[in-house]
Amino acid sequence: MNLSFGERKIQKTGYSFLCPLPATWAKNAKLDQSSRVNIEMLEDNSLRITPVLTTRQDEKGPGAPITA
After folding, report:
1. Quick check: is 10 in a domain?
2. How are beta strands 47-51 and 37-41 bridged, if at all?
3. Position 45 in a domain
4. Cα–Cα dist 44/47, whole Å
């Protein structure tokens, strides 16, 4: 299934380019401002953006003690 979210304007900040993600997509993927996404460049130079699933251990941060 392909959905089109229309065009987005690229913004430049420092040495990076930013592109806002569609709010509908972010909400559907249960993302918020601290969420992470994985970006892959495909052979045709298009990008694939997928949410990075976090586990409870990931949410505790690096170096957090592991409890059983």
Report:
1. no
2. antiparallel
3. yes
4. 9
Determine the Cα–Cα distance for residues 14 and 33; give it in Å rounded to an integer: 20
Q: Is residue 68 part of a domain?
A: no
How many domains are contained in the chain? 1
Query: Is pLDDT of 26 > 70?
Result: yes
Whether the Cβ atoms of residue 11 and residue 19 lie closer than 8 Å to each other: yes
Report the alpha-carbon distance of residue 7 to residue 2 in Å, rounded.
Answer: 15
Across the range 54-64, mean pLDDT stands at 57
30 in a structural domain: yes
52: domain range? 21-59
pLDDT in the model for residue 54: 78
Q: What Rg do the C-alpha atoms of the chain give, in angstroms?
A: 16
